[in-house]
Amino acid sequence: MAEQDQGKEVKKKKSGGCLVVLLVLLLTPILVVGALYIFNKDFNLSVNSLMSNVPGPVGSYFGSFPTREEEQAQIRVISDYMLSIEESRAVDKLMVLMTEDKGAYDEVIKDMLRTNPNKTKNILDSIRSLSVTSDVIISTVDQINQEKQNDLQDVADYWAALPTTSAIEEINQMIASSINGYKSVAEIVDLMDPSIAETILYQLDSTDLNKIMANLTDAQALAIKEAHMTVTRRDSDLEQMATVFMGEDAATLIQTLGNSQTYTVDELAVIYKAMGAKKAGEVLAKSTDDTFVFNVIEKMKENELLNSGVDNLTSDVLKSLKVYKEFDDNVSELVNVYDKMGTDKVASILQNMLLNASPSQVYDLSNGDFITISDEKLVLDILNSFSQTQKADILSLLDNTLSTELTRMLALPQN
User: Among residues 68, 79, 180, 392, which is most buried (max CB within 10 A)?
Assistant: First the structure.
């Protein structure tokens, strides 16, 4: 009994396997033919033509599809129409056709190329150009963003060209006018040269500075901090150099500090401030370049206003400058007069000035310092204005004590 059941099971398996093989053999050709019918245009048209001859509903169904000749005629109508209208309109319509029926689009293009290859090429170039263009919405957004970026760059360039005080006013107004003011300022500062941005930002209130820096890109924030460190180190070095300059006489210093060849105007403003108003005025009085002097003093004034909000420095510098300028002019006039006299006469005048010296003239500065102009200083400056030969002749005619004292004083640094 078990052997019979086992035999029946074997027969069932064999019959099942045969059925699967039979189905595969039947379905494979059908699937292949179906795929050809769907994806092969020529095969599709051939089948439609053949099946349209079958009587009954089947023939009617396949007969409803257009024949190759009919399709070609339709393609030709579309092709001729596309070539007859303006290129821009043809491009629009062909792009719609390409989206809806790529096969029909390809056929129309082929027929157009056969009929008018030049115009068709122009149309295809336009289609390719439009095809690589971003989506209309994306393109519009990109354009808007670019215009905004250009506007921000214009403001950044405008701020950079302003005096620092004016740029700070612009920034403060922007901060006050919007809840996102710090972010708006940062978007502009991000586009500025870090050294220029540093000059402006580090004059702001520390709270405003920190909030703007927090909204900057990391790269720009780092660049501005590095610029500030560089400026801080530079100012420290210049202030140390100023202490050295304090021991030199004004006539020597003007060779180095009387132009912007060795130091920039910004650096000179730091040096002159560190030397103090009295020394600054004495040195600047030696300059013959009024524009240079004005630029240096204006920069000193700007720095004072930015750093402390009030300028208590330049008024003293200007007073010192005026005193020393008038003194130098008087010395020059006297030297011109004395130059026409005999050496013995000049020696006699200078000796009398020293022996009968009048009280020194004192000019007070608002910072508590003062300028002293004495007959002794006048004599020394007059002597220094003569040639070495004239100076030696005059000293030789003076009283030995006076001659010795003047020689000693001429050898000392003139502060």
Answer: 79
Give one DSSP letter per residue of 351-407, joined into a string. HHHHHTPPPPEEEE-TTS-EEEE-HHHHHHHHHHHS-HHHHHHHHHHS-HHHHHHHH
**C-alpha distances in angstroms, 193 versus 11, 25, 157, 159, 161?**
91, 78, 9, 11, 11
Rounded distance, CA 272 to CA 56, Å?
112
In percent, the amount of the chain with pLDDT more than 90 equals: 38
pLDDT average, residue stretch 292-319: 92
Provide the pLDDT for residue 202.
Answer: 93
Last residue of a domain, one of 276, 303, 320: 320
In a domain, 139, yes or no: no
**How many structural domains comprise the chain?**
5
- Evaluate whether residue 5 is within a structural domain: no
Length of the chain: 415
Residue span of the structural domain in which 80 resides: 68-127
Domain closes at, from 209, 233, 257 = 233
309 lies in the same domain as 378: no
Alpha helices in 202-276 (DSSP H): 206-215, 218-245, 250-257, 265-275
Q: Left if phi > 0, otherwise alpha if psi is -120 to 50, otherwise beta: which for 40?
A: beta
Average pLDDT, the chain: 83
> How far apart are the C-alpha atoms of 4 and 144, rounded to whole Å?
86
